[in-house]
Write a structure and sequence with these properties.
The chain is of the alpha+beta class and 400 residues long. The chain contains 7 helices and 15 strands. The longest helix is centred in the first third of the chain and has 27 residues.
């Protein structure tokens, strides 16, 4: 401000100087004609007092007016602005009987001011973490199996189908129960399988063999196929997206045992048990209704129900025990089968103990054994199968 005032004063001073009347030039007068001058003292006594510089006075007045105008304008602008003092945030009072269900602050709530007014902020959905989009993967990756892993959980981790992992990892022999801690698995980028190209193969023949399309093989970026001249050299491993193959049915190792002729299951491996109660419905064979490992699907024609070691296992329905056998049993461990007399047979595997004997009649909910970890298993659970006419069906379709 001081510099501004100095510049304004300098400007008006210069303006005043330029406007002053210039002294007129006098003609030279001969000494003889020169008028008589009076002494300096007399001249000073008779002289009039010097007038004040009016331009300087005007410049100062104008400067003061400008300063007053600037100050007045600033005060007027400040007083004309609305008050924006936001009150300090106060904790939200939530009634005990109505607990908050969101746990999140509201993004579009009005903000109160000291004047009693308020304004609404821009409404938006709060996000407490940044979503980083996943990059598409075109190459396989490795995964080391840890204790507690199951085929279903590994597949969900990589957003694949469980059968895809079975297709690619031949060491599993198409059996998810062969999964063991420390095992290294190959995880493909998409659902499908790998195939080593052979002489005479065409995209159409390979696609037909694995139930997919030629375009799926050609267009997959990981196969690096030249679209202007699509071909693959023999010996090259390619990804067959969406491809599938028949998985080995390891359930055939334990045949279905029926109670005998004229009982609804006489056509499958009957024995001499004869008749008995017939089931009118089916319930869950364990206290828990949760899946602990593998669900029903290709490569696993059963469900693995969560059950701690020693917990009771119940008969899913009324019937006759047609198998009660301990040992390895092709990986089933201690196993029980019950023929329900209506075409259905249920199987209970990996048991810790067996509480029934061959040809025993049981009712729905009868304790037939205890859950365990026997056979080809690493972690206590109940392996539960339902067979209709000797073929496995999804247990979820009948249990209630």
């Amino acid at each position: 401000m001081k510099k501004v005032l100095e510049k304004i004063q300098s400007f008006f001073s210069a303006l005043g100087t330029s406007l002053k009347r210039k002294p007129q030039k006098t003609k030279a007068v001969p000494a003889a004609s020169e008028p008589i001058t009076t002494p300096r003292e007399q001249s000073a006594q008779g002289a009039k007092p010097k007038k004040a510089d009016r331009f300087a006075i005007i410049s100062w007045v104008v400067t003061l007016l400008l300063v007053a105008g600037l100050l007045g304008g600033a005060l007027l602008y400040k007083n004309s602005r609305p008050a924006n003092n936001v009150q300090a945030a106060q904790p939200t009072n939530v009634p005990i009987s109505e607990p908050s269900t969101t746990g999140q602050p509201q993004a579009n709530a009005p903000v109160l001011t000291t004047s009693g007014g308020g304004f609404s902020s821009i409404g938006r959905k709060l996000q407490l973490k940044t979503n980083i989009p996943e990059r598409e993967r075109y190459e396989s990756t490795s995964y080391r199996v840890s204790r507690g892993d199951a085929m279903l959980s590994i597949a969900e981790k990589f957003k694949l189908k469980s059968e895809t992992i079975l297709y690619v990892n031949t060491q599993l022999e198409d059996n998810p129960h062969n999964l063991k801690p420390g095992m290294e698995l190959t995880i493909p980028p998409v659902d499908g399988l790998y195939y080593t190209w052979k002489d005479g193969d065409t995209f159409e023949s390979v696609a037909e063999k694995f139930y997919t399309t030629a375009d799926a093989i050609i267009d997959f970026p990981g196969n690096r196929v030249d679209l202007t001249d699509p071909k693959i050299d023999p010996g090259v491993s390619v990804m067959v997206p969406g491809g599938s193959r028949e998985l080995d049915d390891w359930t055939r190792n334990i045949p279905t045992y029926g109670r005998g002729t004229d009982t609804g299951t006489g056509e499958v491996s009957g024995n001499v048990c004869g008749g008995g109660p017939v089931a009118s419905g089916f319930g869950w064979p364990a206290s828990s209704h949760s899946i602990s490992g593998n669900g029903y699907g290709p490569g696993h024609l059963a469900i693995d129900i969560q059950a701690n070691e020693g917990e009771p296992v119940f008969a899913a329905g009324s019937g006759v025990v047609t198998m009660a056998q301990g040992g390895w049993n092709y990986g089933y461990g201690n196993v029980i089968q019950i023929d329900h007399g209506n075409g259905y047979v249920t199987l209970y595997a990996h048991l810790n103990s067996i509480n029934v004997s061959l040809c025993s009649a049981v009712g729905q909910g009868t304790v037939i054994g205890a859950a365990g970890n026997t056979g080809n298993s690493f972690g206590a659970h109940l392996h539960f199968e339902v067979r209709l006419g000797g073929s496995n069906i999804n247990p979820y379709d009948i249990v209630q």
